[in-house]
Design a protein that fits this description.
The complex is a heterodimer. By secondary structure, chain A is α+β, with helices and mostly antiparallel strands. Chain A has ten helices and 26 strands. Chain B is an all-alpha fold. Chain B has a two-stranded antiparallel ribbon with strand order 1-2. The longest helix of chain B is centred in the C-terminal third of the chain and has 25 residues. Chain B is globular, with a radius of gyration of 18 Å. Classes of the chains: A alpha+beta, B mainly alpha.
């Protein structure tokens, strides 16, 4: 049975305000048919129906169509799709808007063809004879000129109203996605770094623990004496060596409104309370910190100078001579022997050094540092003890309000907080039978972390299967594939706190696996993005190791 | 596009610099949700670079780009409609998966905060454009807000130029009816 199509309605007669109101609440009309309105709204719709024969006809038509749809669905043995009502409501509202536009056109004081010409004239779409003809017509009659002016004005206002700037985050996310796409083109469906809140590990070539400092120190000390003698002190002296930056003036911890944001390149003064931003391209800047030399454009970094390499989107605020606040993004820092300890902070979190090379990344209330040379003190101003830890060359550290973690570079390059995905067989696989598995997420190196839990409407969990013929396919896990209800936290917030005692475990029974005899391989994929998983602390993509299993012959 | 197909990131940066604002403006005009528009814009760029190896300059680049953008918006809207949960009919707020359906169909009334954020007239214009039926809205946003020639709008939307012309007029009439009292007041 085919659901009835809506026959096109003839344009109804000119109507009153009540009808316009009813049109705007076309969705409510369908809800009225289905008895889904609250009493107050129902009373309002009842009043509108009583006063409008057309609205009553519309309701009858909706009622008929709704009944026919339901009958059609039942006849076909189908259950209503999730969101079906919303979809229908959307269609109703769209149709109401179209009919309203038709009515507006029907009562236009200007002939439709001429009106279309006038709008085209206003928007510069006409030329030659056609343009002259329409201009002449418009010149003769004020009401036609008004039509041209209205089109011009609304076009201008629309342009202005829709003029918005892409955020810095948009470019950063796009670039990350582009790189991921080109580096790992073999596995396209998931976009690992896209829009995550986890802190990726900065990349640095790590030398041996403390090796550089051992040979660098005597040379640097000698150079320091020479530098101070040769160059005048210029504590705010800075030079851009790669790219261009944007400099913002801040006052009392906030951006000074109305001040320009000039582009800087070459030598400039980077004064306290100013913010330097890398826009779309990387930016490298050398800055004199304290009683140091003026930074050179190229060559070795003299004592008392630090070099900051800002990734696109990174924002660095100078707090004082040797204290910089990373407001966003990632910065790689190289600092030689400094008079005062150089401090990179992010809120209450900090990394403090005297001479070293390290990278720091701030995101989501966390600061991660990777040390290539020398030592870095990583810590926070408040919170549970211990509050600081000393990182040496080769160490990676993460600090946030509750964690202070260290691991060495050999731990790999996974993000600190990423949970681990594991897949286990729940029962011996049999040909033709559903595949029974246990899918588990466990906390990673960082310990407890909050993840988005299973949601039927949002496919976060995917099973990737390789069958005996070597074909790979992916099955998005749905509620119907769960052999037991998914774990839910007591507050039903959609977020699950993973820790050592609380893995996130799903028992699966997947009939869609279509098991046939032979060697199989399965992997569990878990992917959560910002738009899918509001409130979760960790967002990103993890994949389990392959689970190989054999399905015996029938 | 050749550089983009070869994975040249600077080619992407150039493309982004040139087209991100018009694309974002177009998508914002269609969905009227800043975050969603930005997500959609990113999706469009992903499609562009994935299609770059097969790109042939048969039409203007902008035509091709806006065709992708419109199709992407329609597909995403369709997906959203499919997976969205039934919610209160009075609800005009955000659901967990982004803006509510109510904000994406004509008839969505702007919230006071929206007016305050975007300026009184700007907010009214946005709301009035959002209430246009999709077929008028896409024509209006491309032809008026983006200032594309009618011919290009017709190619993007795959409709005759005459239809673009008449829909533009119809859009002006609807906007005028909604906004004129306010505009005159202002």
């Amino acid at each position: 049975m085919t659901p009835p199509a809506h026959p096109p309605d003839p344009p109804p007669p000119r109507d009153d305000d009540e009808l316009s109101s009813a049109e705007r609440t076309g969705a409510d009309l369908l809800a009225h048919v289905r008895g889904e309105l609250d009493p107050a709204r129902r009373a309002e719709i009842d009043a509108l129906l009583a006063g409008s024969p057309e609205l009553r006809r519309e309701r009858e038509r909706l009622s008929r169509d709704d009944a026919a749809w339901r009958a059609a669905l039942q006849g076909a043995g189908l259950a209503p799709r999730p969101g079906g009502l919303d979809r229908l409501l959307g269609l109703v509202a769209e149709e109401a808007a179209e009919r309203r536009a038709e009515r507006v056109l029907a009562r236009s004081p200007v002939d439709a063809e001429l009106g279309a010409d006038l709008v085209a004239l206003a928007l510069g779409q006409l030329s030659g004879d056609e343009r002259e003809r329409v201009e002449r017509a418009a010149a003769r009659e004020p009401r036609l000129r008004a039509e041209v002016e209205a089109a011009l004005r609304f076009a201008h206002e629309t342009r202005e109203a829709l003029r918005i700037e892409p955020s810095a985050r948009a470019w950063e996310a796009l670039r990350t996605s582009f790189r991921a796409d080109h580096v790992a083109a073999a596995e396209p469906p998931y976009d690992p770094g896209f829009d995550t809140q986890d802190v990726p590990i900065p990349t640095l070539s790590v030398r041996g623990r403390g090796r550089v400092l051992r040979w660098a120190a005597p040379l640097a000390a000698a150079a320091a004496v020479a530098a101070i003698a040769l160059f005048p002190r210029d504590p705010e002296g800075a030079v851009v060596t790669v790219g261009q930056g944007i400099l913002e003036q801040w006052h009392a911890g906030a951006r000074e409104p109305g001040l320009p944001r000039p582009w800087v390149s070459g030598t400039f003064r980077f004064e306290n309370d100013e913010v330097l931003e890398a826009a779309l391209e990387p930016l490298t800047v050398r800055v004199a910190c304290g009683a140091g030399a003026a930074p050179p454009v190229s060559g070795a970094l003299p004592d008392g100078c630090a070099e900051f390499a800002l990734d696109p989107g990174a924002r660095l605020r100078r707090r004082d001579e040797s204290h910089f606040e990373l407001l966003a993004g990632r910065v790689t820092v190289q600092a030689e022997r400094l008079g005062d300890a150089l401090e990179i902070s992010s809120g209450a979190l900090f990394a403090r050094v005297r001479g070293t090379r390290f990278a720091a990344t701030a995101a989501g209330g966390r600061l991660v540092a990777v040390v290539a040379e020398g030592e870095v003190e990583l810590g926070r101003d408040s919170g549970p003890e211990p509050r600081t830890v000393l990182l040496r060359a080769g160490d990676q550290g993460l600090v946030d309000a509750e964690r202070l973690l260290v691991r060495d570079a050999a731990s790999g390059t996974d993000a600190f907080l990423a949970p681990r995905a594991e897949l286990e067989l729940g029962a011996t696989p049999r040909a033709g039978a559903p595949l029974e598995l246990e899918a588990v997420l466990v906390a990673g190196d960082a310990g407890a972390v909050e993840i988005a839990s299973f949601d039927d409407a949002l496919p976060l969990f995917t099973l990737r299967l390789r069958d005996p013929a070597g074909r790979t396919r992916e099955i998005k896990l749905q509620r119907s594939m769960l052999a037991a209800p998914a774990p839910v936290d007591p507050g039903d917030t959609g977020v699950w706190r993973l820790d050592g005692d609380r893995p996130y475990r799903l028992r699966l029974r997947v009939a869609a696996a279509d098991l046939e005899p032979g060697a199989w391989e399965a992997r569990l994929l878990y992917t959560s993005y910002r738009t899918r998983s509001r409130g979760a602390e960790w967002l990103g993509h993890v994949e389990s190791a392959a689970l190989a299993f054999e399905v015996p012959p029938r | 596009m050749e550089r983009l197909a070869a994975g040249d990131e600077s080619a992407l940066a150039e493309l982004y610099e040139r087209w991100s604002r018009p694309l974002l403006s177009f998508l914002y005009g269609m969905c009227r949700d800043r975050d969603l528009a930005e997500d959609l814009m990113q999706g469009v760029f992903v499609k562009v670079w994935r299609a770059a190896p097969r790109y042939e300059p048969l039409a203007k680049f902008s035509t091709w780009l806006f065709q992708i953008a419109r199709n992407h918006w329609l597909n995403e809207r369709e997906k959203k409609l499919r997976r969205i949960r039934p919610s209160s009919l009075d609800s005009a707020g955000l659901d967990e998966d982004g803006p509510s359906l109510a904000s994406q169909v004509p008839g969505h009334e702007p919230q006071p905060a929206e007016h305050a954020l975007s300026g009184e007239l700007g907010g009214r214009i946005q709301a009035a454009v959002a209430r246009l039926p999709e077929k008028l809205r896409s024509v209006w946003v491309l032809g008026a807000a983006q200032g594309l020639p009618y011919k290009e709008v017709s190619e993007i939307l795959d409709i005759p130029v005459g239809t673009v012309k008449s829909r533009m007029f119809q859009a002006v009439r609807v906007l005028r009816e909604e906004l004129e009292p306010y505009v005159e007041q202002g």
